[in-house]
Amino acid sequence: MNPQDRTYKDKKVISIGTVSELTGLTLRQIRYYEERKLISPYRNERGTRKYSFTDIETLMDIADKREDGVQTTEILREMRLKEKKRESEKDLKKRMLQGQLNAQFKLGRGN
Length: 111
Prior knowledge:
Blueprint: E1 14-15, H1 16-23, H2 27-35, E2 42-43, E3 49-51, H3 53-67, H4 72-104
Antiparallel strand pairs: 1-3, 2-3
């Protein structure tokens, strides 16, 4: 994602301590979810983690699922499936738009 395309929710500017306060998760839990590849904080040149509001929403969702007994491997699998679906939908929209443009301007027909 291009940094200029990010919304305020996607900007990685929040410290791990603030994330812990906002979510009620311990620092250890947050780091564990990072180890399990459930979240990906930005790390600056000194290695300091920075999170976004989107990361916080993801952490809250993870915490809710963990309370319901869902394992982290299952959460990760679900997250990957959702991401694949989003990518497929984006690709379909792109192909549909290209088809509409081709039809509108009679492109791709040997003209």
